[in-house]
Amino acid sequence: MATRVRFPSSTGPLLAGLVDEPDGPARGWGLFVHGLTLGKDCPAAARICKQLARDGIGMLRYDNLGLADSEGDWGDGSFTQKVADTIAAARFMADRGTSVDVLVGHSLGGAAALAAAVPAQVRAVVSIGAPIDPGHAENQYDALVDRVLSEGQAEWLVGGRALTLRRSFVEDMRNADLRESIRDLHMPLLVMHSPTDNTVGIANASEIFRTARHPRSFVSLEGSDHLLTKPGQAQRAGRIISAWADQYLVD
């Protein structure tokens, strides 16, 4: 069962989400952070959260600013805002009496999860296909960067949608540095990555893992693509997260 929710972003516009709830008593609760322009209904978000709910872990997944059902303009966002909105989502879950035990992030959402985990006051964090440098996302819009930096903004066509890419966004992504946040986690970390990920190379996972302190774990998602779109890939990731997180859930 999925419950539709809305909650304020860090800058005011309402963000739309779904809470995938377990059929029986919850073992715990989690929060999923999607990638750059993907949304709460992308295969990785939907399938992992549904699998975790089947395993008794209720999950909130939501659309970032200006995407799908959320209010606001995507172009007004930034990596800094993505981190702040992750914290706001965790606060929303706490206010409804379902405090987040496990924070899960995919792709750029994995980077945001690593940066937000401590202020969000979660028990454990999972990164899936995450870059060590958020600026890595520039590979997706590199043809527009010079124009954005000189003119202030440009239209970016993504999956049939026109998004506004602004100079402030590009600069914020370039300036973001996760290493201190990763060193300061002081909580269980699970790093998941495919060795054949052609979008965010597995060297990123290696550096995240080396930078982190124990307790830390690594799982190789053999055969998976970056977006976890092939049959069974996301569900397998969900089952692994469920087993790993068991000892960190509220009794």
Automatic annotation (TrEMBL):
<dbReference type="InterPro" id="IPR029058">
    <property type="entry name" value="AB_hydrolase_fold"/>
</dbReference>
<protein>
    <submittedName>
        <fullName>Osmotically inducible protein OsmC</fullName>
    </submittedName>
</protein>
<feature type="domain" description="Serine aminopeptidase S33">
    <location>
        <begin position="28"/>
        <end position="158"/>
    </location>
</feature>
<dbReference type="InterPro" id="IPR022742">
    <property type="entry name" value="Hydrolase_4"/>
</dbReference>
<dbReference type="GO" id="GO:0052689">
    <property type="term" value="F:carboxylic ester hydrolase activity"/>
</dbReference>
<dbReference type="InterPro" id="IPR053145">
    <property type="entry name" value="AB_hydrolase_Est10"/>
</dbReference>
<dbReference type="Pfam" id="PF12146">
    <property type="entry name" value="Hydrolase_4"/>
</dbReference>
